[in-house]
Design a protein that fits this description.
Layout lengths: L1 E6 L4 E8 L3 E9 L1 H5 L6 H23 L8 E7 L3 H18 L3 E5 H7 L12 E6 L4 E6 L6 E5 L5 H11 L6 H9 L24 H14 L12 H29 L3 E5 L6 H14 L3 E2 L3 H4 L4 H12 L23 H6 L7
Parallel strand pairs: 1-4, 4-5, 6-9, 9-10
Antiparallel strand pairs: 1-2, 2-3, 6-7, 7-8
Helix pairs in contact: 2-3, 4-11, 5-6, 5-7, 6-8, 8-9
Bound molecules: 5'-O-[(R)-(carboxyoxy)(hydroxy)phosphoryl]adenosine and zinc ion.
Length: 358
């Protein structure tokens, strides 16, 4: 089965053709980093305009690289949410038009589910139940996945996403955007024990994440020590490197510590770590060690599939198409789309302060 995937939820315009949900025939990504870099983050209006400019050539290139004709695909999968509304609409409208013109089946894919499927290409098939940690610039969620397509949120961030925290701390330190890669690079030369940051824990005992307090703690440290942010591309000093290492270390401890604690309740057979922050070597290393203690395999996407791409959307879409799912031409973007289809009363349990249990 050949599926065209289209992804435009944030600042990457991407198209990919995937065979049988696990083999990438072609994958093309146009990044908008140059456009947004000077603003220190994604500017939604600029993002949708660039998607409009790029969607046609990017899809054409995906077919060209694959060496196939448009009529040869068996279906189209497009990201419908969560994301920026203007950005999502470009991909959704294009996919609908293409499905209509070619008379091909269409499915909408949740971007976060796409990230989970980014491990489908270079690992053995996922054994369920699985625990999937999705950490990116927009999301930080830990899912229990009892079977294919079944998701229960076990932990989520109450404020900033982990990648967002990397980006905001980098901005504060004058390190540019995106923050994750540069913080990781500096952290390699820093001492992770130099600055003591506490792992954020919820007062109500739920295994959720919180990163905004950490951002404030970093700002306080900068203020109190008189540490100067980096200016005009000058070389960061040891103080910045130590701060980067200490910050990265506490984020990793929070993510992996929660995953390990939750695993004791949910007993997964596989652990998945995906999303842009899964590029982070320290997070990978700590996840590998945790999985070893749990006695289960851990799957990561390869680096180029960790950040946003369309191959992961095509992979997730393939499973849905194979299951007979079809979207109509009324398919629409859903900015706040959640990935949770079991235990929908969780919100009530949360308000009642009940711990997540199976
Ligand atoms: O998945 P992604 O491409 O986009 C979203 O869906 O958000 O993730 C981008 C995020 C950014 O916040 C970026 O700083 C972070 O992933 N990131 C990293 C690393 N590489 C990218 N964070 C930590 N360490 C990295 N090496
Ligand atoms: Zn993403």
């Amino acid at each position: 089965m050949l599926v065209l995937g289209i992804e435009t939820s944030c600042d990457e315009t991407a198209a990919a053709i995937v065979r049988d949900g696990c083999k990438i025939v072609s994958s093309v990504i146009a990044s908008q980093i140059d456009t947004h870099q000077r603003f220190g983050g994604v500017v939604p209006e600029l993002a949708s305009r660039e998607h409009l400019d790029k969607i046609v050539p990017i899809v054409e290139e995906a077919f060209e690289q694959a060496g196939i004709q448009v009529q040869e695909i068996d279906g189209i999968a497009v990201t419908v949410g969560p994301g920026l509304v203007g950005s999502l609409l470009v991909g959704v409208s294009y996919a609908k038009a293409m499905a209509f013109a070619l008379n091909k089946p269409l499915v909408g894919v949740n971007h976060i589910e796409g990230h989970i499927y980014s491990v489908a290409f270079e690992n053995s098939p996922i054994e369920h139940p699985a625990l999937a940690l999705v950490v990116s610039g927009g999301h930080t969620n830990l899912f229990f996945v009892p079977g294919p397509g079944k998701y229960k949120v076990v932990a989520r961030t109450r404020d900033d996403a982990a990648g967002e925290a990397f980006d905001k701390v980098a901005k504060m330190l004058g390190l540019g955007y995106p923050g994750g890669p540069v913080i990781e690079r500096l952290a390699r030369e820093g001492n992770p024990r130099a600055v003591k940051f506490a792992v954020p824990r919820m007062g109500d005992g739920l295994p959720d994440f919180s990163f905004s307090g950490l951002k404030t703690a970093v700002a306080k440290h900068v203020r109190e020590t008189g540490l100067q942010p980096v200016e005009n591309g000058e070389k960061p000093g040891q103080g910045i490197k130590d701060l980067a290492a200490s910050f990265q270390s506490v984020v990793v401890r929070s993510l992996v510590g929660t995953m390990e604690r939750v695993a004791e309740d949910y007993r997964p057979k596989t652990v998945i770590v995906a999303g842009g922050v899964a590029c982070n070597g320290a997070l990978r290393e700590a996840s590998r060690e945790a999985a070893k203690r749990l006695g289960v395999p851990v799957y990561f996407p390869s680096t180029h599939l960790s950040t946003d791409n369309a191959a992961m959307i095509a992979a997730a879409g393939t499973v849905r198409l194979q299951g007979g799912e079809r979207a109509g031409l009324d398919l629409n973007a859903d900015v706040t789309l959640r990935l949770q289809n079991i235990d929908v009363e969780d919100e009530a349990r949360r308000r009642a302060g009940v711990r997540y249990r199976l």
